[in-house]
Structure prediction request, 686 residues.
Amino acid sequence: MPANNHAGPPRRGPMGPGMMMPGEKPKEFKKTLGKLIRYMRTSLPVMIVSFLIAIASVILTLNIPNILGEATDTLISGVLGKQVYSAVEEELPSRLGVSSMDSALEIVAGMYNSMTGENKTKYDVTLGDLASIAPSDEVDSAQNNVAEKYLEGLMSLPLYYEPQIDIDSIIRILILMIALICASGALTYVQSFLLAGVAQKISYRFRRDIDVKISKLPLKYYDKVSNGEVLSYLTNDVDNISITLNQSLAQFVTSITTLVGVLIMMLRISWILTLIPVVIVPISLLLIMLVIKHSQKHFVRQQKYLAEVNGHIEEMYGAHQVIDLFNAQENSRAEFAEYNNKLASAARKSQFLSGLMQPIMQFIGNIGYVLTCIVGGILVVNGGLGVGNIQAFIQYIRQFNQPVSQFGNIMNTLQLTVASAERVFAFLEADEEKETGDKCPENVQGNIEFKNVRFGYDPDKIIINDFSSSVRAGERVAIVGPTGAGKTTMVKLLMRYYELNGGAIYLDGRDMTEFNREKLRDEFGMVLQDTWLFSGTIMENIRYGRLDATDDEVKAAAVTACADHFIRTLEGGYGFEINEEADNISQGQKQLLTIARAVLADPKVLILDEATSSVDTRTELLIQKAMNRLMEGRTSFIIAHRLSTIKDADLILVMRDGDIVEQGNHETLMKQNGFYATLYNSQFSR
Prediction:
């Protein structure tokens, strides 16, 4: 049935007004970040411990390249010693004019032992000096000169056995390295475990607070914000925060520690080589910031279109029967394709640009490796560094480049996370229903008075101008009028779903604003045209009206609402499971269950908003009889378009354009031959 501007709150599209799109840059980064930190204050000690563990893990990892370099130097020293010894073993005897190596070594040792003072000291050299002796070196013919020439290198070698590779030292070094790796891995596991717990705890708290907030917000908030938007707070935004807490924050701390630690370790090896990554890093950061600048706008669009796609799917899925009924599948698919194409285009651009960062960093990193090898080779040749130092330095460069490349992703993720937190906090800080009273209704009789009531869903568009009427306790009041006249709005005001723009509504002579909303609504029962049932048994759905009701009371309420008969025909009876969509029972049966729920609540004031519109004529007659029994002694408001159902009402309020134009019982209004008579007669005319 079409509705005009008076029928209810303004309809909105998938996104509410003034709401930040998912993925948008936060408007107040520092302020929101401060709120997020304060929100997590109970978990901060655990987070600090996890960060300290992450730092310890990084420190242990930083020693691994140095230890591996020591193993490399030990191995190279042994191999080089064996090669030199072999070369000496081949050359030395012939040059000294003897037949065996033992004889040659005796000559060299004897010469060495005969030396004293400075002459002897100058031959106490290291193994590295032996590498400078080559067979092609020019040697004097005299035996003593040859011995002196080779003595310079041989004095650091064992004179009575061939040098061996120090396998024991290498094994000890490797065991130490494995121990460090295992210790670092164990610390990383503990740190990940702690942060995972923190992330889930914060996510749980956010979702709990959002769930509580949903019930505290006034209905006018949901008139402007779609269901999909609220769901995005519970899913996308909270997930963004959870992922950041679980991964990105630890990665950020690890990256900072790694950057500083690696820089220190590189300086210890060679300040000359350290200049290479120090010069390259600013270039890398500049390129990363350039990519982020161009990709950020596409990420914003991606999240925006993702919200639109989710909202469209949720809306279409909820109305799939209506879509099939009107053969609107093609229109739905076309609309989805439009949203999906926009999402795909934005996602393709954002992912492509963000994907450039890794290749760029690899390219810059490879340049650093090449320069390190060239400069390091020169230093090794000149004796400034060992091969193990160069090996360790190259590993440090790799570790140095990794956090630099991660910073771009981390900052982007942090920005999106703060934006998500800003959206969630905006929802949590939205104005709640202001509780104007703290009194509890006692001994409610049901006298209702509307006095000069003015109301508009938009304060600039008043739809109820000046509504006044009095209802005595126990009366049955029917509210009739054309669509959009303000009938449902009146009962919503009676339930205090919205605040008045003017005037007042009194219950037993007291302004309703003096009462606590929760206590006030306990005195009201309401059955709407749109039924709402949840996934569960029929017994559970009826008991929702009063949670402490016994099974017998639930069944008695079903009998009163004429629902007992059809319930017993279902498989399982009152234990019959209603599915999530509640489409395994008919619309009329759903309406009967909601009426039974209202019966069970036993309210002092009963509101029926088109409660019998979805049932057949026979069931309607049964419900009318049940309602007559139910409404005895209760003030009842009945909204109905079928005027034949409210002929027995004590008072009929005829509304038109937000005002009462006529009031009285059926006979009186028919005699007036006014607007009510026109409405009534139109239902029986051709």
Remarks:
- The two ends are 20 Å apart (CA to CA).
